[in-house]
Amino acid sequence: MAAEVPHGGRIKLSRRVLLLSFGGLVARLWTLQGTSSSRVAVEAADRQRLRVLSVSADRGVIYDQAGRILVRNVPAFNAAIVRTDLPDDDVPRRQVLERVATLLDMPMDSDDDDVESVNGLLSKAEVLPLLEPVVLKRGIGEETAFLIEQQQLTLPGVVVQVEGRREYLFGSLLGHLLGYVGPVPAEAVEEYRRRGYSPNDTVGQTGLEHSYESVLRGNKGEERIEVNAEGRKVRLVSRPKDPEPGLNLVLTLDTELQKVAAEALEKGMARKESPAGVVVALDPRDGAIRAMVSLPGYDNNLFSGGIKHEDLVRLSEDPRFPLVDRSVSGVYPPGSTFKMVTASAALQEGVIDRETQRSCGGIMYVSSDDGSQRYPFYCFNRAGHGSLNVVGAIRHSCDIFFYQVAGGFEDFRGLGQKRLASYAHSFSMGDLTGVDLPGELAGLIPDPTWKRLTRQELWLTGDTYNCAIGQGDILVTPLQLACATMAVANRGTVYQPRLGDRLLDGEGREVAQYRPRIVRQVPVSTEHLDIVREGMREVVSIGTARTLGVKGVDVAGKTGTAEFFGPLTPGGYLPMHAWFVCFAPYENPEIAVVVLIEDSGEGAYYAVPVAAEILNAYFGLGSAGAAEAGS
Fold first, then answer.
1. CA 571 → CA 12, 38, 574, 575, distances in Å?
2. Is pLDDT at 110 greater than 80 in this prediction?
3. pTM listed for this prediction
4. Last residue of a domain, one of 221, 251, 281
């Protein structure tokens, strides 16, 4: 049996246990308040002293088909704010913000959504991590950047970033095509965030910069840096991930031909003080775009690094709409250039054959259903063309021939609008072409269903007559008309038009190629297309464009003069757009050209000389002659 501990011994033992426990608690408290707190303090200091920042990747360079640099990156300065480094107190914080606003010539606040302000940008950045710099202004001058650096003690939290700014070497010549880059649009922040972007990133806004954003942008890197008390970089600690530059884009574009086209178009517009014009030149063998001009244009360098408010207002309020790329976003009645579609459809559907003759007396009358009224329909040549077949009708651009072929006349049954509309769609009209540019419009090919649903009216024979010659409610883009011309030129194949040709890495190695893509075959036999082609060749050799002035190359084409609703001319006529479409050489076409000059006059007089200069330049020939008037 164990000996019993005396009462006094038990008290002493309890005291020892209590003293040991208390000592342990004191030791633990010392550890927490001493060692651990020191570690926490060190970790907190490290978090303030060491930061992980993203490193922007160089954007890919863009070249034309001959290797000329069109877009490159040049060093530029941005002013930004790191919010965690701003003073905590309201008064000194506001003083810093007001001082930087003065340096950057920015308002502190603004009620105008188009005017960026310091507080407005900081409010938008509330969704960002506090350590992520908020860009206040891009592309600041060197002097301003140096001033900010010199005043770092009085501007805590304000930093200068160095990044690549896009420089567009050909300015307005390629403004519409290349587009420009800018900050992530406010309305698309969430969409871009899902794709791995920061709201502070620069992205392609328009043109090819937008279409090829995913390959041009590159991949960001990361670096770990040490900063001082003002939040400024002291040294680079490490770079866990190097940035990967974007791929370089080579285009199908011929910049020299683009220059010729722009200069020729400017001269053509000047002849009648036209407000706008378009040229599209592409290769009918694969859809590669060689030149595409829309005038007036704009210098995309204005947007590089942030456009000034006054420049944006000037461009936005210009009544000629220089920011609109009319080659893909302008829609117009095609006029008589549409007759190549009407002829192809009528031949294929057996409404006519090569020998079918129709008579043109300059005017024809169509009776109403009840016979109470007779409506006149005129040919542009009021004297008439006499009896002619489809080749002659294309050559002379006879309106009455195509009225009758499309809508019928007396006992002659025509094609009808439904079939005509179906063929127009097959030639790429009224549909998106799929070109690698944003902002493309589909245009309109009307039919009886469309008129009933949109206007609550019945389709009339006169509507078909108007559509047969590219008037009425038909609307096409110049690029769509270029695709239709391509299909006639190459005997039936519609390729997707494209500007992108291939991608290169930083060492110049090809990593991808954009191959020609066939969209469709038009449902017209080679035999029938050859009849249309023959008519278009006679347009140039003995018809409405007989003074084209391209020597030594067999060219086929079609003139067009499209009326549109606007103020009447002094002679009491509707104003007109001038068109000319063509391809060459006739037997094995290499190039198809479309020219549009808005609000000018007859296509043969205003548009043909422009095409002549482009073709002469393309084939290395002399200057063009002057064309005479015709439809």
1. 127, 93, 9, 10
2. yes
3. 0.86
4. 251
